[in-house]
Amino acid sequence: MARRQRKGYKPKIEPQFRINGQIRVPEVRLVGDNMDEVSEAIGEKVEAGVFTTRQAQGFADKIDLDLVEISPNAKPPVCRIINYKKFLFQKKKREKEIKANAVKTVIKEIRFGPNTDDHDFNFKAKHAEKFLQSGFKVKAYVQFRGRTIVFKERGELLLLKFLQELEEFGVPEALPKMEGRRMFVFIAPKKIVKPSSKKKPQKSKPKKENKPAAEKAKPPVTEDTKPPVTEETKPTVAEETKPPVENKVVSSDPVVEKKADDSAKE
């Protein structure tokens, strides 16, 4: 008769790593990056190598750390002198990062029967096409019920036809395989390679010289663009009747001056 367990009984959980007094082997191999710190704390140089368990435990006690057995199957077992709680925290953190970076594959199932007609086949093929374009893996299988198990060849032909329909979007991982009353096949999406968009080098156009504003051509003055005449800008009567000023030739030669006077009288 089986012994009944007490309520609230929790079985003892064995530690993941043996530490300190739990290590019952005569010799251990010390490794780690903190051997220089251990040497400074002890006052003598300690290098990675084989030590007795009591000696290694003494090193750990002097610097208030734990002797942790990392690889128990090695001969002799491999140990490190570290903080055990910090070691477990870093180990759990690394596992969490690996799990987060792992690629999660989603599998979509498409079910057929050995007597699936063309309409249902095309309908399910379109669904599988959308799944593959979205990056999901597709598992297509034929379910044989009762006496339909005798139509294995019909189910295999159906799956091969299904693979042919989706050859542009996916790649079969293997040929259809029979397992129990199911014949199945896995289809992985094709990796679409995007064409590399290389920019063509642009031809450098000659820069136009910026001419100063004074050299730019002024627009022609027309009747519309003439400034309006106001009282201030209107010429007076004296200015209108004023005779034009003649340009006299000034010369230091008296003969030339006399000729100029004679021509003016004429």
Mean pLDDT, nearest integer? 77
- Quick one: CATH superfamily of one domain? Translation initiation factor 3 (IF-3), C-terminal domain
Unreliable runs: none
Gap from first CA to last CA = 162 Å
CATH level-1 class of one domain: Alpha Beta
Instruction: Indicate the CATH topology of one domain.
Output: Translation Initiation Factor IF3
Number of strands: 9
CATH architecture of one domain: 2-Layer Sandwich
| Cα shape | flat
Largest sheet: 5 strands, mixed
Radius of gyration: 51 Å
Query: Counting H and I runs of at least 4 residues, what is the number of helices?
Result: 7
Helix fraction by DSSP (H/I, runs of at least 4): 25-40%
Structural class: alpha+beta
Estimated share of beta-strand residues? 15-25%
The succession of helices and strands, N to C, reads: EHEHEEHEHEHEEEHH
Summarize the SSE layout with pairings.
Elements: E1 27-30, H1 35-42, E2 49-52, H2 53-62, E3 66-71, E4 78-82, H3 84-101, E5 107-112, H4 118-133, E6 137-143, H5 152-165, E7 170-172, E8 177-179, E9 182-189, H6 237-241, H7 254-265
Structure report:
The longest helix is centred in the middle third of the chain and has 18 residues, at 84-101. Strand 8 (177-179) and strand 9 form a beta hairpin. Helix content is 31%, strand content 17%. Among the domains are: 20-99, Roll (Ubiquitin-like (UB roll)), CATH 3.10.20.80; 107-189, Translation initiation factor 3 (IF-3), C-terminal domain (Translation Initiation Factor IF3, 2-Layer Sandwich). It has helices at residues 35-42, 53-62, 84-101, 118-133, 152-165, 237-241, 254-265; strands at 27-30, 49-52, 66-71, 78-82, 107-112, 137-143, 170-172, 177-179, 182-189. It is an alpha+beta fold. The chain has seven helices and nine strands, in the order βαβαββαβαβαβββαα. The mean pLDDT is 77. It is flat. Strands 5, 6, 7, 8 and 9 form a five-stranded mixed beta sheet that branches. The termini are far apart.
